[in-house]
Amino acid sequence: MRRVTFPLLEWCRLAISLAWFSAIEASLVLGLMLSLFGGPSWTPRFAAQFGLVVALLVGLNFGLLPVMLWLRLPINPLTVNGAALLINGAVLRWAAGLLVEPERALSLPAFVPATLLLAIANTVLNGLIALDDEYTFFQFVIQSARDPNRSPLQADGAVRRGMVLLQVDGLSHSHLKQALELGLMPNLREMLGEGFHVTGFDCGLPSQTSAFQAAIFYGNNDNIPAFRWYERERARVFVSNRPEDARLLQARYHQAHGLLRGGSSINNLLSGGAARAVLTLSELHAPRALEDLTAFWLNPILFGRTLALCALDLLREIGWTLRQRLRGVHQPLLLPHALLRPVVNVLLRDMTFFIVMREIQRGSPIIYATFIGYDVAAHRAGPDCPHALNTLRGFDRHLRHIRQAIRHLAPFEYDLFVLSDHGQTGGPTFRQRYGLTLHEWIARHIRRSARVSQAPAVDESGRSLVAALVSDLRAASDALHGQKRRRLRRTTMRAAAHALEGLTSAPPPPPNGIGDVVVCASGCLAHVYFPSIGSPATWQTIEAHYPGLLDALTQHEGIGFVIARDGEDLIVLGRHGARSLINDRVIGKDPLEPFGAVALRAAQLRRLAEFLDSGDLIINSAPYPDGSVAAFEELLGSHGGLGGPQTEAFIVHPALPTLEEATVRDPAHLFAVLEDWRRRCAIHASCDT
Questions:
Q1: 130, part of any domain
Q2: Which of 15, 229, 498, 539 is most buried per CB count within 10 Å?
Q3: By CB neighbour count within 10 A (0-12 exposed, 13-18 middle, 19+ buried), where does 187 fall?
């Protein structure tokens, strides 16, 4: 592991930038605090005194952190700025006392807002003068924290390598290329220039997170027909990101065989057999590793910076909504939804990166973390919208910090992977195009006595992971119960959990339980069930009970195809033809032709239709000439079925001979490749290259 050195020119640049930055920061904060708490009038003499005190603050602020690092204070290197902030706050109070009478100086109640204001000023000005690059204090921290004599040899003498896998939820291979071309991800581009490769692959069906994570963690995603579906055995709707359902889904798999066994799961739906899990939906019932969450939440510099960035992101969300309205596009400005974006795009992102870096320091053998900011923004704005693509900037900045942590803080070498679980395809929704939702349209085409119920839509994956954050905050605060010195911390975390609860409200269940017909929409894919006539039902049975429904569905211009059962056969029905998924016989025009790679799509659809809990009818949106689809949910960017880039996943990886585009067939195959790489690098010293 090489040690970073700084040429003289770079030292000068850092010194000038930090001195200027510190002067502006100290002037703004001190001046504002004096104004708020009754400072004297601004005379030339007082201005000179103010400048002198600011110069003293600059000197202290500039020299404080290097001195702390030189003394090797027993502070975690990733949180050393927290102690620096508290000391700066105390210095700020002392400086105010030099300018005004002692009785008018900053009181103790003013000390807290002063330190918070210092954090916000630090964040804003840091962005304005572009200090968040390789010249930041982080470089000093990691240089001072690492031991130059440390060896990657473990106690047993075996050379090991670890794995860090960062999942960017919902980013397709084509949109990754777009982000790289637009210069939104310079650090990832740098990785590609250093020998990393990007391999695209088809994520299969259904194109959504729970199916992908089951496959890549366990090598098996059987009977996961969509993001939400109707369980015939329990006669209930199953939703992948509902914590109790995520727990049931994970119970299907043997945890000892999971890819993440002995490692760490952060911000995921499933745990993959990880020994440490934080913000993982399937583990909310189990004891969790919460000390990192507590460390982040109660660190003044980290949390203060994140809070300021959340405020800026909220302003971006409000500004985008207002611009859409000026363009004639109606976008409701709902406060809970507006608050969701900064929570998932900033708060969860920063917390996740912080925990990943701590796990790297601990030497966790494998770390898997999910970042959902892009997915949530793309659902609302569309995957091509700058409002969504710009969320990748924050991910890319933190990606550099992860690489620095691997280089300087890790006890052994790590292989870094960046991957996606699926893509998204944009376009106006089915309701926006045709005036009705799919379940409303079906209700109009069946007899009036039948009840059509719609599976409750859990609004975006972000809400469920915020619910996981609320649960973990409550668990962390409960762990502090009875510790007198930590009552304030406990109260703070419980108050934060209560404040975030408003973003996690689940939709009400359908009235009067399950209907005669159940419609479960997942993006542009929908499963339709007929519990009242017995399932699975053939198309002949459906036609007998609901005459004309199947023909009306297949002839609708917004529907690409419908899959129905014909005895032992599975038939794909389109507007101008049909295809058997069992014997591949085609009558008329093949309905799968517009979706490309017909043989692959037929194999994927056959596997999907043969799942025990797949619908009696499986419906997929039509692909439109502009490449869009019509989601059956109210999402401008959607995934789950076929059409457009929603099935285009990718993985950025070091040079691995088994990871070539032609050989990555699906996420289950990716599990086998990563499992083999992990096994070989844990055993053979030859992997340490």
A1: yes
A2: 229
A3: middle
